[in-house]
Design goal:
Layout lengths: L11 E6 L2 E6 L8 E4 L3 E4 L14 E3 L4 E4 L4 H4 L1 E2 L5 E4 L3 E4 L8 E4 L33 H10 L4 H9 L1
Parallel strand pairs: 7-10
Antiparallel strand pairs: 1-2, 2-10, 3-9, 4-6, 5-6, 8-9
């Protein structure tokens, strides 16, 4: 179960997957639609790895030292993919990259908001070009960084950090 938020897309459902739970489209969803938003308690830490254990793999980085935990929210259930059909808008919204067909699992690349020491060593996304390790935007292949920045689907705080050099 999850606690609905006003920005959760009305045409999604949570189902059991081989990875635990996932978010799936129940109807076609248009490109640029908000699927969910990370809302919740904000934590400050110099290192993602020192966040409370329940948050380490479930928080979204929103600044160099700030993380938001969407405990029990739809945003927390969205899985990672190295070939995502969703991205980040602003600081905390997860939006579709293109039109989504009904029945499709909605996923985003966690590196789109991450620029810390956090790593998930065993990626389970199953994408053809799976990187096998999920972590910081800084360790993405240059082609992925360029593509995500061109599409504008990384967190605003990372866009700002990249533009400052």
């Amino acid at each position: 179960m999850f606690t609905p938020h006003k920005n959760d897309h009305p045409h999604v459902t949570v189902r059991t997957t081989t990875k635990g739970r996932g978010v799936f489209a129940t109807r076609p969803i248009s490109k640029g639609s908000v699927i969910a938003e990370f809302v919740g308690e904000v934590f400050t830490s110099d290192y993602a790895s020192t966040l409370p254990a329940v948050m380490v793999d479930h928080a979204m980085q929103i600044g160099p030292r700030d993380y938001v935990h969407a405990a029990g929210r739809l945003a927390e259930i969205l899985n990672h993919s190295c070939d995502p059909n969703c991205g980040v808008s602003g600081l905390t919204q997860i939006v579709t990259r293109y039109d989504i067909a009904a029945g499709t699992e909605l996923c985003w690349d966690y590196a789109m908001s991450e620029m810390s020491d956090w790593r998930m060593s065993a990626c389970q996304c199953g994408a053809a070009q799976c990187r096998e390790t999920v972590g910081s935007f800084a360790i993405l292949p240059e082609t992925a960084k360029t593509q995500y920045l061109r599409e504008g689907i990384v967190s605003n705080w990372i866009k700002d950090a990249v533009s400052r050099g």
